[in-house]
Sequence to fold (288 residues):
Amino acid sequence: MSNQESKPNNATPLPAVVEFRDVCKVWNAGTRGEFKALEHLNFCIDDLPGKGEFIAILGPSGCGKSTLLNLLAGFHEVFPPTSGEILVRGEPVQGPGIDRGMVFQKYSSFPHLTVLQNVAFGMRLNREKMGFSHAEILERSREWIKKVGLEAHEAKYPHQLSGGQQQRVALARTLVLKPKIILMDEPFSALDEPTRLEMQRMLMDLWLEVEATVLMVTHSIAEAVFLGDRVWLFSHAPGRIQKEFNDIPKADPALHPLVMQGRKEFQEVVEQVAAAFREIEKGKPVKG
Ligand code: ADP
Fold:
């Protein structure tokens, strides 16, 4: 293929965690406002037992990155695709499910619920499916509130928290449900730089613990290279994976992101990605 989209791999013994087969999404089809957000999008994320993959997605604004995440989440505002198939563990996606959790850029917690109530919300909603007692829900909620460093804040409401703290609540709300696929749409882009770095470090620790597959859209090349096992660079709309970077220096969770990001081998990859991004922005084809 001219671009770096990975093809479905029929030799894989376990069904892929996520597979997009020739997915297209056209908005306002048949009207003057018709817009092709995604076209012929094919990729496959294999199941890596005992560990998930972290895929960071970069691309020009409006190229369909959020559309991809929302389709995979099965959100009714976007789902289904105009054509093509989306599979999770070999089963066609039919709508939202607790196997997929989303963290948005904007603070998405319920304003009228406390931190504890927000984190418990998803488990309460899915109590029967998850089989938790009320006591277990409380215990798990507190455990995750502690993991994201908010143990002193469980009785507060979202408006009483800083931006970084609100995103910690969003992470805890999602991760407490132990989704095997975590979708993140620019989760840290509204945060100041020190808070963002702190959140990157925390996410790295938590991700190693939850062993989920992550697809994260970001505008920050450094963030993509720091967190990603693979970085996908999207073309302008209709969005496709124009180039994949997978030879990325492994981040050492013991190191502060700034130390890691200051290293020569890290900066070299950032420069390669940035150069490919500049070509896409200029509308030039990028070599695979
Ligand atoms: P990105 O996340 O890459 O910035 P999006 O996936 O949000 O891009 O959007 C891709 C394109 O689809 C944009 O041009 C956007 O205007 C369009 N789009 C997104 N949602 C809708 C919608 N509900 N109706 C019509 N067009 C939409």
In short: Residues 193-210 form the longest helix (18 residues).
